[in-house]
Amino acid sequence: MTNSIAEVERADCILVTGSNTTEMHPVIANHVKRAVRQRGASLIVVDPRRIDLVSFADIWLRPKPGTDVAWINGLMHVILEEGLHDEDYIRQRTEGFEDLRRVVESYTPQRVEKITGIPSEDLKVAARIYARAPAAAILYAMGITQHTRGTDNVKSLANLAMLCGNVGIPHAGVNPLRGQNNVQGACDMGALPNVFSGYQPVGDPEVRKRMAEAWGVQELPETPGRTLMEIMEGADRGEIRGMFILGENPMLSDPDLNHLEKAMRQLDFLVVQDIFMTETSQLAHVVLPGASFAEKEGTFTNTERRVQRVRKAVEPPGEARPDWKILCDLASAMGYPMAYDHPRQIMEEIASVTPSYGGIRYERIERVGLQWPCPTPDHPGTPFLHKDRFTRGRGLFHAIEYQPPPEVPDEAFPLYLSTGRILYHWHTGTMTRRSPGLVERAPECLVEISPDDAARYGIEEGDYIRVISRRGRIEARAHITDRAVEGTIFVPFHYAEAAVNRLTHGHLDPVAKIPGYKVCAVRLERP
Amino acid sequence: MERVRLTIDGKEVITAAGNTILMAARQAHIAIPTLCYHPKLPISGACRACVVEVEGRPALVASCATPVAEGMVVHTRTERVLRARRLVAQLLLASGDHNCLTCQANGRCELQQLAYELGVEELEYSAEPPGYPKDTSNAMIERDLNRCILCGRCVRACNEVQVNEVIDYGYRGKRAKIVTAWDLPYGESNCVFCGECVSVCPTGALTETQAKFRGRPWVIRKVRTTCVYCGTGCQLDLNVVDGRVIKVTSDYRHGPPNYGSLCVKGRFGYDFIHHPDRLTKPLIREDGEFREASWEEAIGLVAKRLGEIKAKHGPQALAVLSSARCTNEENYLLQKFTRSVLGTNNIDHCARL
User: Fold this and answer.
1) Using a CB-CB distance cutoff of 8 angstroms, which residues of chain B are in contact with residue A185?
2) Are residues A88 and A194 in the same domain?
3) Model pTM?
């Protein structure tokens, strides 16, 4: 997030898109709802599904799946046409504006209505609400990013925010709501193929030299590695022979599972370190029992870049060990001695090699976490980014044309399928599906379908239906609801017995290599 | 900031204008009991447990809802005040079925504490117990309206903190109670089980089902940590008894990002910690089946096989998936291991999933 969670509550306008906030980030949703009910903020929801926040919204735009660049360009078109943009901000803090203006010129509300299905008058109303707010915050999540044009979607939202001077001020910004508890931290720590911790590029010789010295090795590999989906392709082609997986379950979370399973089975050696036997560890040659968050010390970094303590409350079961200890043992067994008495020492090392974490110390975050960038031990942390200047200097507008998704419905597969999560379960369900309270609320996979589509296919509430794509099929019960838009069904991916990722495709965004989970084509059958 | 000078129990107190008498008294370490007041919630002034005497005012005032004024003279423990508070306690005790013997709230119940502080030994009034059936319609929150004192904290928590708008006051007079829409049990209502209502209930009317009979408040050890589910990073307390997590709570004083609020997963989704399916020993696959192994053997085998693949096919034939579920320290170590020991940048995690 460019800004902090608590700032959302004081925004004058909040635009939520591709985030079912009340289910996926319920506590952040509370800030949104309080801003609307108690402070009179305007709320714009842009989402194909009638999510709960729609009932709090001033206006709800319902685009066809995969048309995000079009409606965002459309909003900017209206804002420019009506002169609602922030000229001073654009002149003083940004570049590339003329290119942007040229591209969005053709995105008239009429054209955008044809592409997205959003009525042109609604688009205008939303544009005015957003542009007239002194501080407008954009919240988004994977409904924006999990597209084959996900990077374009994010850049477009950044364009919109900069156009109205909403980056670098309090209570505004462009705010991705990160999914996993420590996905921010895993990125910050360099669990990525192209960067060390603190996003220091592996391709930079200076950085490599510094890291090699700090780690006491001769040299470090210079070529950026493979992304997750490229790793899996490599396994499929026999280029990746050995794999180590820490606490992830790709055999349920990744797209096109039938294909993936074949690739994983070809590995010469697979190690999985986890707290439960999962669909993935079933395929492993060695399984190492790790510790849960309640059994170890450490830190997580939340979506607002706040580094917070994790503390040990109970002992790990049996012979299970904290994951950091296992990694130390493995490195030592491979001839690289790694010895730390406590994760506190690891954080001291992180701080010494990672400029943005330079001031993070356990004793400073005992009570309240610190938000990076926090470069020095006396730095108070950074609640919002890009104040006065952007990281790169001037904010760069990206002129982006809308491109349709790679797989759209046709005669053989006439419906859109969108995948995601529900309130009561988490990711692949290894944790939440072992909680009786949560299981009672959401015991099985439900296919969300609109009343019109249900009538068309003769489906009644609770019927078992078969969902078929070009890649696979699953069976689950139908849930008829006006949350679903006509022509699109929604299936959560938590349930192994109805693994929706047997249906999804492996097309990736060319830059971020994220799978296009939110759009693929399917048909329905009665089993 | 404008300051106001007042006198409480003969002590001169200086506080910010706009503060209530209760806030000023607490700053001066003068104890005033409360029930419907909760620092996290909007003020309601409903229960009258916090009444005090203000010179020049004919009636006792609710200190939680009365702003201070310059020169105000307040008495918090006069006989008149104590008599009024005792009456409140007596009426509340008579209006419900407050049997502390095996109540989950015993030891942290604010009504119990009030009665104790005021020395209420004998019940002066008797009333028909309300006889509400317990709401056990779900596996997370148990609702026993016989213990409800209608303070309305849960209503404010639901509507004004979480803004879920599930519960409110229903009915009138003696029949008044807290209801969901159509007076359905929680399990059949549109409740989303965030548990904010449980977290502010001063008595045993709302309790965590799974913690029942698992440990009294005074044996609980609280360990503050960060929630393991979404990226919000809520601060919470694991409540530990005999080496087991029996429930999860939070506290508004923990501050950002959640100020004591949680969601259903963070509050009730902790059973996995002690689940019998947990992996407890390293496993090695042999002839298609897993067998248990020692750490030494398992680590030795992993080191050997990764080393062999690296030697035979080069470091680029190895790949590592790190975890967005694990700590910063662990992610840092794993990328350090991947780059400096395995010799490849083939490391990623599920950021995109």
Assistant:
1) 324, 327-328, 331
2) no
3) 0.94
